[in-house]
Design brief:
The protein is mainly α and 154 residues long.
Length: 154
């Protein structure tokens, strides 16, 4: 396969490969947290662990899904005993969501395993190279979050 010389084309190719690999590993990661956890629910669970007492509307906005999808995913996480909801003291109609003790333990174990794996993958990279990659990925994510998309964009 020819490697394109256009940096945007190269980026598209490399991101595509990275995303395919990430999807493949997401299923393994989700199963490590709970055998019945859907791969798409792991990032949601990890975010709840980072942001305890978050509202479902904030989660839906962060993840980029609708309320119905969010409600179904949260219901499933609750059924699995990984999250709990409590009334929002500032809004009687709202609920605050946090991971359960067991959910937190499982997310922490998965995060530790994932970071150990990434450490092995990047062990020949210098700390500066690792930092530069993290900085550039952060910058890309910020740009993706702030750039509006047209209906014809993928």
């Amino acid at each position: 396969m020819d490697t394109p010389t256009d940096p945007v084309a190269r980026l598209e190719t490399e991101l595509g490969l990275l995303l395919r690999r990430a999807r493949a590993s997401a299923e393994r990661l989700a199963r490590a947290v709970h055998p019945d956890l859907e791969p798409s629910a792991y990032p949601l669970l990890a975010w709840i662990a980072r942001e305890p007492d978050i509202r479902a509307s904030e989660l839906a906005e962060h993840i980029g899904v609708g309320r119905g999808t969010m409600s179904r995913q949260l219901g499933r996480l609750e059924q699995l005993g990984l999250i709990e909801r409590r009334p929002d003291p500032e809004d009687s109609r709202g609920q605050l969501i946090r991971v359960t003790e067991e959910g937190g333990r499982r997310v922490a174990a998965a995060r530790t395993a994932r970071r150990a794996y990434l450490g092995r993958v990047l062990e020949e990279w210098t700390p500066d190279e690792r930092g530069a990659l993290a900085d550039q990925l952060h910058r890309l994510n910020e740009s993706l979050a702030t750039t509006s998309r047209t209906p014809t964009d993928p």
